[in-house]
């Protein structure tokens, strides 16, 4: 069957716009001219293939009908580039100029980095599969999960303190955090190396949990700008009897007992915060530090010295905890008392003092190690010969001035 014979010029119309195709026969071959007018000026394009000429005419007619005059004037390679660009953005129904403007702005923000790489990064960290969860809700949920697993109350208390500080600093989703946020948070705390590393450990645990829950990308490394600090072994610092007496004098009643427990029984600050009155009254003459309240997770009992018994007798009784307030309030009260007493506060110095004076008093490393909840090796290495027996006698003689109507309670036979 013969192909349908075409009559020239072929007219391609779109709306009121028309583009004509003419045929030119020359000795070198047949050519087709695509002709159209813009602003009264005639434009012509030549093709050796009729199908390509028809496609060109249809494209020009479409451009002219929608007023796309600039595009209609493109020739050669520019016309090809323009067509590809239109095809690429067609599915998004966004004007080509808007696409170009947005691309330019994005490249400026990326400072020359690839826009595609940035989009891939965003997709991994913020895109599909990542669930939105606020930092506060994520912290609370993780702690509840740890509690359900049966971890120790000591571990939970530490997480609540450190991650509680973190969630108060960031009111955003977990996946909105960046490494600089975490680095600046830790720097602002101004912590000693050990405390800094403890915070770092807690945050690492939290971020790993968040990744398992898909609140944070598996590829995110929020600790990329921080690293563990070297813990320098500082020399043991202790208080003199005069400094302790001044510190006790300027402490309010509830704090006085806490200071006395550290100074005369070697109870750590963190352990004091967990003690309740039952721990003192359960075994007359002794303080019981249960395993779940001790730093070393090992139960120990500490004898109550005569002067400590007097501080206990005068201490105001509360329901439950020896220190019924917050941890932050405790350390703030300690610093205020030291300032009022004109005593430079030394970290862990109450406990260091107890061990030093107790060792000088009884000259028994193993017994002091049991009472303090540490090893004989640590006692022998750090505390031997720091003070004299005479200074120890003065230390354990520090007692409150009892009011005439106060009768010390009998706490049992825990003589030392």
Give the topology, please.
Elements: E1 10-14, E2 17-26, E3 29-38, E4 41-47, H1 50-65, H2 69-72, H3 76-89, H4 96-109, H5 115-126, H6 135-148, H7 153-169, H8 179-189, H9 193-212, H10 241-249, H11 253-265, H12 269-272, H13 277-281, E5 286-289, E6 300-303, H14 306-314, H15 327-340, H16 349-362, H17 365-372, H18 376-382, H19 389-395
Antiparallel strand pairs: 1-2, 2-3, 3-4, 5-6
Helix pairs in contact: 6-7, 7-9, 10-11, 11-14, 11-16, 16-17, 16-19, 17-18
Report on the structure:
This protein is of the alpha+beta class. Helices cover 51% and strands 10% of the residues. It has 19 helices and six strands.
CATH fold-type name of the largest domain: hpI Integrase, Chain A
Helix proportion:
40-55%
Give the mean pLDDT.
Answer: 84
- Report the major sheet: 4 strands, antiparallel
* Widest β-sheet, arrangement of strands: 1-2-3-4
Beta fraction:
5-15%
What is the 3D form?
rod-shaped
For the record, the count of structural domains works out to 3
Structural class: alpha+beta
Q: What's the CATH class of the largest domain, please?
A: Mainly Alpha
CATH homologous superfamily classification of the largest domain: Intergrase catalytic core
The N- to C-terminal Cα distance equals 122 Å
Please tally the helical runs, counting DSSP H or I stretches of 4 or more residues.
Answer: 19
Keywords for this structure?
416 residues; alpha+beta; DNA polymerase, domain 1; hpI Integrase, Chain A; 3 domains; 4-stranded antiparallel beta sheet; 19 helices; 6 strands; 51% helix; rod-shaped
């Amino acid at each position: 069957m013969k192909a349908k014979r075409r009559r020239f010029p072929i007219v391609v119309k779109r709306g009121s716009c028309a583009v004509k195709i003419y045929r030119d026969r020359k000795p070198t071959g047949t050519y087709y001219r695509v002709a159209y007018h813009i602003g009264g000026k005639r434009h012509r394009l030549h093709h050796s293939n009729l199908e390509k000429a028809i496609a060109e005419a249809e494209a020009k007619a479409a451009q002219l009908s929608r007023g796309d005059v600039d595009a209609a004037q493109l020739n050669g390679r520019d016309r090809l580039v323009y067509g590809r660009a239109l095809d690429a953005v067609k599915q998004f129904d966004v004007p080509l100029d808007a696409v170009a403007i947005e691309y330019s702005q994005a490249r400026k923000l990326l400072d020359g980095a690839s826009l595609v790489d940035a989009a891939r990064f965003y997709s991994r960290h913020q895109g599909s599969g990542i669930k939105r969860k606020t930092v506060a809700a994520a912290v609370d949920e993780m702690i509840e999960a740890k509690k359900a697993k049966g971890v120790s109350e000591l571990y939970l208390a530490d997480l609540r303190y450190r991650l509680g500080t973190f969630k108060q600093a960031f009111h955003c989703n977990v996946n909105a955090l960046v490494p600089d946020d975490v680095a600046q948070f830790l720097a602002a705390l101004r912590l000693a190396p050990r405390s800094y590393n403890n915070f770092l450990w807690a945050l690492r645990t939290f971020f790993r949990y968040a990744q398992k829950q898909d609140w944070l990308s598996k590829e995110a490394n929020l600790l990329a700008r921080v690293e563990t600090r070297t813990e320098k072994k500082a020399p043991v610092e202790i208080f003199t009897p005069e400094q302790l007496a001044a510190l006790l004098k300027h402490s309010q009643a509830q704090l006085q007992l806490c200071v006395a427990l550290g100074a005369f029984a070697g109870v750590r600050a963190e352990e004091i915060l967990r003690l309740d009155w039952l721990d003192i009254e359960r075994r007359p003459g002794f303080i019981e530090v249960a395993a779940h309240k001790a730093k070393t997770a090992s139960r120990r009992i500490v004898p109550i010295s005569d002067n400590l018994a007097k501080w206990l007798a005068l201490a105001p009784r509360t329901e439950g905890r020896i220190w019924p307030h917050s941890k932050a309030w405790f350390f703030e009260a300690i610093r205020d008392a030291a300032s009022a007493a004109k005593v430079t506060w030394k970290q862990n110095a109450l406990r260091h003092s107890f061990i030093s004076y107790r060792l000088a008093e009884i000259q028994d490393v193993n017994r002091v190690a049991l009472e303090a909840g540490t090893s004989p090796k640590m006692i022998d290495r750090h505390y031997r010969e720091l003070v004299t027996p005479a200074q120890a006698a003065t230390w354990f003689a520090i007692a409150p001035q009892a009011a005439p109507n106060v009768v010390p309670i009998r706490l049992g036979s825990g003589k030392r």
